[in-house]
Amino acid sequence: MKKNSVITPNEFEEQLSHLQEKFSLLERRLSIKTDEIVFNMAVSHRKEMDELKNEVFGLRDELRKMKRERRYEYMGKVAQQARRRSVG
User: Distance between CA 63 and CA 21 in Å, rounded?
Assistant: First the structure.
């Protein structure tokens, strides 16, 4: 298209239609890319949540084990003291 040339209404409509198609394509590509990014972020956050959940469960199990060990230690001390009292 030349700088000072006059375009016909048909040419204008054709160019406008071409631009609209380009914008539609760009919008679709942008939408797809956005969906991909959101999906990847969701997957990443889900992995982090699973890791944190596993860590919490591990800490819970460790705490239970420590409580059980302390209970056994305490019961052992109480039994030992009872034996000393009965012997002495």
Answer: 62
Q: How long is the chain? A: 88
Cα gap 28→2, rounded to integer Å: 32
Work out the angle at residue 84's Cα, subtended by the Cα atoms of residues 79 and 85, and round it to the nearest 5 degrees.
95
Instruction: Report the alpha-carbon angle 44-46-51, nearest 5.
Output: 95
pLDDT digits (tens, 9 = 90+) for 18-59: 999 999 999 999 999 999 999 999 999 999 999 999 999 999
Answering whether pTM is above 0.90, one says no
Taking the C-alpha atoms of residue 69 and residue 26, their distance in angstroms, rounded to an integer, is 64
